[in-house]
Amino acid sequence: MEDRRTAVSITDRVDLELDDIQSGVLHERPSPYVGTYLLLRIDDRAAGRELVRRLIPLVDTGRPALDPVHGAWITVAFTYQGLAALGVPQESLDSFAPEFRQGMAARAAQLGDVGDSGPANWEEPLGSGDVHVAIAAISGDADRLRALVERARRADEGLAGVEMIWQQDCYQLPTGRTSFGFRDGIGQPAVEGSGLPSSNPKEEPIKAGEIILGYPDETGELPPMPAPEVLGRNGTYVVFRKLHTRVAAYRQYLRQKAASRADAALLGAKMVGRWQSGAPLALSPDQDDPGLGTDPHRRNDFGYADDPRGFKCPAGAHARRANPRDALDDDGGVNVRLHRMIRRGTSYGPALPEGVLEDDGADRGIIFVFAGASLKRQFEFVKTQWLNDGIFIGAPAEKDPLVGPNDSSGAFTIPTTPIRRRLQQLPPFVVTRGGEYCFAPSLRAMRWLAQLAT
Ligand code: HEM
After folding, report:
1. Half-sphere exposure of 253 (CA within 13 A, CB side)
2. If you placed Cys at 248, which of 8, 192, 359, 449 could pair as Cys (CB 3.0 to 4.6 Å)?
3. Whose CA is nearest to atom 8 of ligand 1?
4. Which pTM was predicted?
5. Distance (Å, whole) CA 160 – CA 62
6. Mean pLDDT in each 10-residue stretch from start to end of the chain (454 residues)?
């Protein structure tokens, strides 16, 4: 859990209807955490509505707690097929964003989910059209999680027309890091009205409408919202992706390209934009600074404008691509604030023990979770324009070195003087195992769904 108590900006200029918003959207997960994702299929409309009715009391809302030992909570989201299975009128279904209606599998080519990452190779039932309801249960405590998951599972008990079709457990690795060895979940925007201040004093909280539907966004407009209002308002789109990480391949690649262990750590940090500890290259370009990496007041307090050529942090580094901060604002008019997102990723699978270079065949990686008001302008834009393409940084052939769809022909430029360094033949280190575009409705909307009459 990132402690934001002393950060600067106050984020209460907007009245968010916090009691109606699922708290998983605004609430940071605890650290350490354990969690479970459950996917369900609705075969019978009435049973599906009864499921929604039973899930309502389990969903947590309200002002996000600053207390890191928050109990346990679940978030419930629906795919387009799920809303259709519940009997949401066609007129209303048509009012959802086109990308959501198509679903993630249909967007695979645009997203770079091809080859091993293509839907034909996805884990069943992801992308099959059978996924209707997605439930995420997260807690700081295994016993509380077990009790909550038990309650969630009981919600479909005796409902012949609802079936649990997939379960994925997740947990924070003992290192507190993700499978590649890096601390994750640091760079997050603060949301106006959430009550949580910004961890980056250089970034004003983003407008509530960037994340929660029904409020003005950064353009001053209300973003397109599904109709009727009771269904759309206080909801948010959610992207759920199971991303397998090829940790042995990553370590082998670094071993092959680096002159020493220290050099391998540096190359890894250049690829990510942060050292494994979480310390940003922008503040500590030459060596890791674990104290900085764990200091919530300093580790996100930076921009890139003073490093236009990327000598400290390469423009192609993952975190700088995913959030270029002030590096783009005056350059070409790209408004970075229109492409921010809430991330709620978690780790799954066992860690590959330190120093092991051979693949042990285990499935490990990240359940990447995005929350935001626009699949297209936020998740898809960042994925396609910034991670999968290098035009915006003047290196069209370069994809994200860590998470981009590289095919062993890609390159990554590390500006250094007198001669830049180039990593060649980048293989893919991340394989998409599947995912879904979902919509996490408000509590009021869940009640509306449970009571649909047609
Ligand atoms: C397996 C895949 C991925 C891994 C291992 C990964 C890892 C990381 C790490 C280590 C950081 C730096 C720590 C932090 O700021 O939280 C980071 C930051 C970030 N990542 Fe990823 N990431 C993955 C996929 C993605 C994808 C698919 C997206 C978006 C489409 C994304 C968006 C971001 C964003 C927005 C940041 C924060 C940048 C900032 O505010 O400075 N990541 N990621």
Report:
1. 22
2. 359
3. 184
4. 0.95
5. 33
6. 36 79 85 93 97 93 62 91 98 98 98 97 97 94 88 86 96 90 92 88 93 96 96 98 98 96 97 98 97 95 95 98 86 77 94 95 97 98 97 95 94 93 96 98 98 88
